[in-house]
Write a structure and sequence with these properties.
The chain is α/β, with parallel strands linked by helices. About 40% of the residues lie in helices and about 10% in strands. The chain has a six-stranded parallel β-sheet, with helices on both faces. The N and C termini lie far apart (about 80 Å). The relative contact order is 0.16. Bound molecules: thiamine diphosphate and magnesium ion. The site of magnesium ion (MG) has 6 residues, from strand 5.
């Protein structure tokens, strides 16, 4: 007959289980929100610039400036194309929040992965996608990255670490979690960044994905863009939290609040979080405080926005103006150097746009190919009986 466990041995067994359940060790509840790079009021009425504390070298700062201008000017060109009815679908601007996408993506290593959303064109450009691909994609041209099958930033480039997003908000969080599990199995040390809006954070997929990443201690950085709106819904009607960063406590992961209009702060905070994640610390939530100065897309007349609000942000808290002031005040460059960068960017955009405009539209029947793996699923054509 098997020996009955004594009271003491049952107790020690429970102790072992309890120990295993007690992961990770540490205090029971700790709100780990770093506000080192959070927005602050301008001192003595001085205009805002960028954070002083940076490890970036002058060449890198100028490269950041180039990406900021590139993002803004590519989008301006897209608006022109839209007004000429050359764009298929909508144009989604990141006007006023370019520093978030550019600064965060610039902190990554070439092998790291991102999945952007519609306000993150800057991150796509930092990852090495050329403006010509963006123009051709928005115009649904045959030479575009999806060959006219999809629009705007709905394409990807695995080689460059750019996972194309699908429209369903929140769903890319579990996808990036899967990418990181795959990388871990292949013993690849990469970090992945998933961008999400204040609206997208209210989805079930966001919660499930981030919870799993946290439990698995995966190096996932979630950049939560607090830009005050989801379509016309203000963030105050989206969440009862004051700061999106508070949500990290529910997953047991650290979070940061960063001034999303300070490109240097966005870089620094992401660099710090990426180092932590790469060292095995696990997932991090970074909330970038910013403001969406255009409507959801070009068709949106923003009638729901309070009077003068957009003008206030344009005049007092524009990320490009702030960084220009910073570069000039810190003597990183003189005005003529900045003008030279803008001329070069403008020239590149003209060339790339002309190339994209010269592309043909795709042939209709080709759209049936390359949607599924055609070695498994044959392309679907309309049965002749329906043609009549
Ligand atoms: C699950 C899901 N619900 C609704 C939509 C429709 N939709 C597309 S963008 C958008 C607003 C998103 O707001 P936010 O997440 O704050 O991002 P922002 O546009 O401000 O960058 C909505 C509701 C969607 N694509 N997916
Ligand atoms: Mg939003």
């Amino acid at each position: 007959m098997a020996e009955q466990p004594t009271k003491t041995s049952r107790k020690s067994e429970q102790g072992a289980h309890a120990k295993r359940r007690d992961r990770p060790p540490g205090p029971r509840f700790e709100m780990r929100i770093s506000t080192k790079y959070a927005p602050h009021e301008p001192s003595e009425g001085k205009p805002l610039t960028c954070t002083d504390e940076t490890s970036l070298k002058p060449d890198q700062l100028l490269e950041l400036y180039r990406y900021l201008k590139l993002t803004r000017l590519v989008e301006e060109r897209l608006v022109n194309l839209y007004r000429q009815t050359k764009v298929v679908g909508g144009v989604f601007r990141s006007l006023g929040q370019e520093a978030t996408a550019v600064g965060t993506a610039y902190a990554l290593q070439p092998g790291d992965f991102i999945t952007p959303l519609i306000r993150d064109l800057g991150a796509v450009l930092v990852k090495g996608i050329r403006p010509r691909d963006i123009f051709a994609q928005y115009m649904a041209k045959a030479w575009g990255p999806s060959g006219g099958r999809d629009l705007n930033i709905h394409f990807g480039d695995m080689g460059k670490g750019f996972i194309g997003p699908i429209s369903h908000l929140g769903d890319m969080i579990p996808v990036m979690t899967g990418i990181l599990i795959g990388a871990r199995m292949q013993k690849k040390e990469i970090v992945a960044v998933a961008y999400i809006g204040d609206g997208g954070m209210s989805t079930g997929a966001f919660h499930e994905g981030l919870n799993f990443a946290a439990v698995q201690r995966l190096p996932l950085l979630v950049i939560a863009e607090y830009n005050h709106f989801a379509y016309s819904t203000p963030t105050s009607l989206q969440t009862a939290c004051r700061d999106l960063a508070e949500k990290a406590a529910g997953y047991g992961i650290p979070s940061h609040i960063v001034d999303g209009n300070d490109v240097v702060a966005c870089y620094e905070v992401t660099k710090h979080a990426a180092d932590y994640a790469r060292r095995g610390g696990g997932a991090v939530l970074i909330e970038a405080k910013t403001y969406r100065r255009k409507g959801h897309a070009e068709h949106d007349d923003q009638r729901y926005v309070a009077p003068d609000e957009i003008e206030w942000w344009e005049k007092h808290n524009d990320p490009v103006d702030r960084f220009e002031k910073y570069l000039l005040e810190k003597n990183v460059a003189k005005q003529d150097k900045l003008d030279e960068i803008v001329s070069e960017v403008t020239r590149a955009i003209e060339e790339d746009c002309a190339w994209a405009e010269s592309s043909p539209l795709p042939e209709g029947e080709k759209a049936a190919y390359g949607v599924f793996d055609n070695s498994i699923v044959p392309p679907a054509f309309r049965p002749p009986v329906l043609e009549k």
